[in-house]
Amino acid sequence: MSFGRFVLRRSLQGIGVVWGVVTVVFALRFVTPGSPINAVAPLDASQETRQAIAAELGLDQPLYIQYGRYVFELLQGDMGRSYIRGQEVTTLVFERLPATIELAVAASIVAIVLAIPLGVISATRRNEPVDYGATLLSLGGISTPNFWLGIMLILIFAVEFNVFNTSGRGADVGDVALSAITAEPFVGTLLTWLAYITLPAIALGTYFMALITRLTRSGMLDELSKGYVQAARAKGLPRTLIRYKHALRNTLIPVITVLGLQLGTLIGGAVITEAVFSWPGLGTLVIESINQRDWPALQGSLIVIGTSFVLVNILVDVVYAYLDPEVVTD
């Protein structure tokens, strides 16, 4: 199979998965107790008023008609209108999406910066105190719920020491980049951004960091035992060169795959972290929409999250196939 056919096949599979996400998300409205009309109609609304609201929202139509109309409008980029906010869901969702992506990328950076060096050190100093410490840290990271960790970080670093902010988003990456090319104070904007994003990025990226640490360690141990490493040592090459140019390079192929997959997971899994830190992203919108029974906003958010996960998976598969042509087989 050629590389182009592989990309086409994965893209068609991704389209099928997205269609499945749309179908499941649409069906959730009808299997969940209660009616969306309750979120719109006054508490003392008469039956006639409720019927008029249902007709206006199209909820009096048969299920297959509602589904067909929803898919048709979705293909045109129309996710409907929020019951509570009165805004177009497409606008509402894509206003929140950059904050979620920014948090997911920041969490990934925190995880990568800590995990890969820890994994390498743990593998090269096996059964030493550093190895035990890295293993203990990774086990703690995998076992710790991110919402509990977020609350502890707030209590310690925001409430007790008043180093970071507890909630919100004071600045974004765009503000930092803009301040770097304008007369605005760059350092002040950067510090403001770090004050708001550091704690949620750590809380969201801790599990990711622990996973990458263990994966890097096991991969390095496997590579360091192979013959080419022994041959490089016999030739007298420096240990640092062997570890980082040869062994680590080969270890990074599965790590890259997990990085991409986990980035999609972070986008979808940021819901609880965003709620803890009141981060104005898709996760917060999902929680608010559930509490308010705002189905159009909830459906739009879940579809975008699911589509983002699928796109990241496709991108990872394409990059992996490019790096390792053996993946593309007949």
UniProtKB/TrEMBL annotation:
Q: Which domain of life is it from?
A: Archaea
Question: What's any one GO cellular component for it?
Answer: plasma membrane
* Principal location listed in the UniProt entry: membrane
Q: Which GO BP terms sit in this record?
A: transmembrane transport
Membrane disposition:
Multi-pass membrane protein
Q: Which UniProt keywords apply?
A: Cell membrane, Membrane, Transmembrane, Transmembrane helix, Transport
ATP-binding as UniProt keyword: no
The listed locations are: Cell membrane
Residue ranges of every copy of the ABC transmembrane type-1 domain listed in the record: 97-320
Which PROSITE patterns does this UniProt record tie to the protein? ABC_TM1 (PS50928)
Membrane-spanning parts: 12-31, 103-124, 136-159, 193-212, 252-277, 297-323
Coiled coil (UniProt feature) = none
What PANTHER family has UniProt attached to this entry? ABC TRANSPORTER PERMEASE PROTEIN (PTHR43163:SF2), DIPEPTIDE TRANSPORT SYSTEM PERMEASE PROTEIN DPPB-RELATED (PTHR43163)
**Family the UniProt entry places it in:** Belongs to the binding-protein-dependent transport system permease family.
Q: Protein name, please?
A: Peptide ABC transporter permease
Q: Which organism is it from?
A: Halorubrum tropicale
